[in-house]
Write a structure and sequence with these properties.
The chain is built from six helices and seven strands. With 192 residues, the protein is an alpha/beta fold.
Length: 192
C-alpha cells in the first residue's frame, strides 16, 4: 500500500512519528447522517462473529467511494480467530497505510483487545454515536470495534459514518494525554 502524500501526512506529537488520517481531511458532511466527503483509506477486519456485519459495511463503504482494504475473513468460518484478521489491520493503521480501521468480532471486545496490543493503535468498542465521534475528537481513535452479534446493520452504519467524519481536535490537553500513552507504549516495548 502506498503512503499518503506529504499533505496528508502530519507529524503526530503523541508518538513522535508520522501518522496519517487524523487531520488530513476536514471537509465533512453531518457526521451522523452523511459520509465524510474525502475518500479515506479504510481497513475492515472481521472473524465469523462479525462476518455478516462486515459484508454489509464493506458494501456501504465501497458505494460511498472509500478506498477499502478487506483484511478478512473473506468467508464465514466458525473456526477462524479474530487476531488473525485484526492484528494485520492494526499494523497497517499504525504504519499509516490505513487511515481508519473497523474491527468486528461477535461482541467487539476481542477485536478491541487485539487491536490495542499494536503500538500506535487506539481502538475502542463503540456501540453508541457519542463515543464514535468523541473518541476521535479527544482521543484520536483510529480503530472502531463493533460487535457483529450486538449491533444491527443500521446502527453500525451510523456509527461508522460518525467515526469516519470525526476529526481529532489537536487540543493541547488531548495531545498531552496521548503523549503520556505513547510514552507508556515506548516503555513497554523498550524502544524510543
Amino acid at each position: 500500500m502506498e503512503d499518503g502524500s506529504e499533505e496528508q501526512r502530519a507529524e503526530h506529537p503523541a508518538n513522535g512519528r508520522e501518522a496519517s488520517g487524523t487531520g488530513a481531511h476536514t471537509n465533512c458532511n453531518d457526521p451522523v447522517h452523511g459520509v465524510a466527503n474525502a475518500i479515506q483509506r479504510i481497513g475492515v477486519a472481521a472473524d465469523h462473529g462479525g462476518f455478516e456485519l462486515a459484508q454489509h459495511l464493506i458494501a456501504r463503504l465501497r458505494a460511498a467511494g472509500h478506498d477499502l482494504f478487506d483484511f478478512g475473513d473473506r468467508r464465514q468460518s466458525p473456526e477462524d480467530d479474530y487476531p488473525d484478521f485484526v492484528i494485520p489491520l492494526a499494523h497497517e493503521v499504525a504504519r499509516g497505510n490505513i487511515e481508519r480501521g473497523i474491527a468486528i468480532c461477535g461482541s467487539g471486545v476481542g477485536a478491541s483487545v487485539a487491536a490495542n496490543k499494536v503500538r500506535g493503535v487506539r481502538a475502542c468498542l463503540i456501540h453508541e454515536t457519542f463515543s464514535a465521534h468523541q473518541g476521535v475528537e479527544d482521543d484520536d481513535l483510529n480503530v472502531i470495534c463493533l460487535g457483529g452479534l450486538v449491533v444491527g446493520d443500521a446502527l453500525a452504519w451510523e456509527l461508522v459514518q460518525t467515526f469516519l467524519a470525526a476529526r481529532f481536535s489537536g487540543a493541547e490537553r488531548h495531545l498531552r494525554r496521548l503523549a503520556k500513552i505513547a510514552e507508556l507504549e515506548r516503555a513497554m516495548t523498550g524502544s524510543s
